[in-house]
Amino acid sequence: MQVMRTTLTLDRDVADAIEREMKRRGDSFKAVVNEGLRRGLGLAGKPPEPTRFEVEPRSLGILPGIDHDKLNQLLDELEVEERAVGKIT
Fold first, then answer.
1. 33, 34, 80, 89 - which has most CB atoms within 10 Å?
2. What is the DSSP letter of 42?
3. How many helices, marked H, and strands, marked E, lie in the chain?
4. Is the confidence at residue 19, as pLDDT, over 50?
């Protein structure tokens, strides 16, 4: 769900009604305004439409011949080698 931030100027009677509803429900300004707008626009009780999740494939920049599934093994071997060299010096 995308979120839109905007500035909204409310008439005094509407602002007062929102404040009363916030106190009555113990809810936030955002929740009260969104619920009121949903009811007024005929969207009450309808779940918001989920946004479509899309994966954008990108190259990892791995050279041909390198098995990316074994990169953890390579890192382990490099760490062992680094420790061995560190002990010698």
1. 33
2. T
3. 3, 0
4. yes
